[in-house]
Amino acid sequence: MRKGIHPAYGPVVFRDRAAGHAFLTRSTMTSDKTVVWEDGTTYPVVDVEISNVSHPFYTGTARVLDTAGRVERFERRFGKRGGA
Description:
Radius of gyration: 23 Å
Distance between the termini: 57 Å
Helix content: 10-25%
Order of helices and strands: EEEEHH
Oligomer: single chain
Shape: elongated
Number of helices: 2
Strand order of the largest sheet: 2-1-4-3
Largest sheet: 4 strands, mixed
């Protein structure tokens, strides 16, 4: 990599405010807030609203849409498609 054109890449704690979960990873994101991690080292912390711990897709609470009802409603409003 060329020097001087890339942002600093280092350890950052991402904290999911909805689930109270935090994880340490490396990123180019920075923050003025800091947190003392489990190893006793202070890292910058970035608060996120959703992560894999609180996202419905990963937690298994995602709702399945009624696509059959939507198609039938569309066909009632606009008519069925004619065969070619």
